[in-house]
Amino acid sequence: MPFDLLSPAVTALLVESLKQTAYMVSVAAVVSTALGLPLGVLLVVTSPGHILPLPIFNRVLGTVVNLVRSTPFIILMVAIIPFTRFVAGSSVGTSAAIVPLTVAITPLFARLAETAMREVDRGLIEAAEAIGASPLQIIVRVIIPEALPSIVAGQTVALVSLIGYSAMAGTVGGGGLGDLGVRFGYQRFMPEVMAAVVIVLVAIVQSVQLLGDAAARAVNHRIARGKRSASRA
């Protein structure tokens, strides 16, 4: 059957691969956010001079995060195959690919969240300490809310990277758009399939970036309105 760009066969393959990519990215994004944000908080609050200084713990944690971040994703996928099998029951397939994707993105998001939270005005933290706020209250009511626009922007960057990693995971049995591009576009010499995959990936990344930028602006405006209302009160 001829594979032209608009053929039913190509469309069916694209739809199925898109579903697999969406599944991998969405689950990995949720899990990496749930793990990365607390990790970022720990990197901030345990640093010297902050509200819970633990220099040795902070250095060890930072070293581990840096080691994972500095490992190329392809190598990381292979290196943690035993862990992937333990968690997912297999090292091949869409569900299995979620494990290395999560491991790769969590430290990236943690560092982005850490950078965002370090930009919070130190005076606000000191004011909260002066009125007797506990460390948990400072984290929940001061640090995270003040850094939220930058955290959302950082999550957008992490999500774009995650989409790229998901395509890479497809080249080694993870399924999704990357697998479709390699198996049909490259190995079977079907450039129209490769072109379709690239177009879809670019569209996804652009959509995620636009939505992420809009969300960051919306959060920033809401925080600004809240501050103005509090100052008038």
TrEMBL record:
Q: Where is each ABC transmembrane type-1 domain found?
A: 18-212
Q: Where in the cell is it found?
A: Cell membrane
Can you tell me where the transmembrane regions are?
A: 20-44, 56-81, 87-110, 151-173, 193-212
Keyword list, A-Z: Cell membrane, Membrane, Transmembrane, Transmembrane helix, Transport
- Which GO cellular component term is one of those annotated? plasma membrane
Q: Which GO terms describe its biological process?
A: D-methionine transmembrane transport
Membrane-related topology note: Multi-pass membrane protein
Q: Does the keyword Glycoprotein apply?
A: no
Q: What is its main location?
A: membrane
Q: Which domain of life is it from?
A: Bacteria
Q: Which family is it part of?
A: Belongs to the binding-protein-dependent transport system permease family. CysTW subfamily.
Identify this protein by name. Answer: ABC transporter permease
Q: What is the protein's species of origin?
A: Rhodopseudomonas palustris (strain ATCC BAA-98 / CGA009)
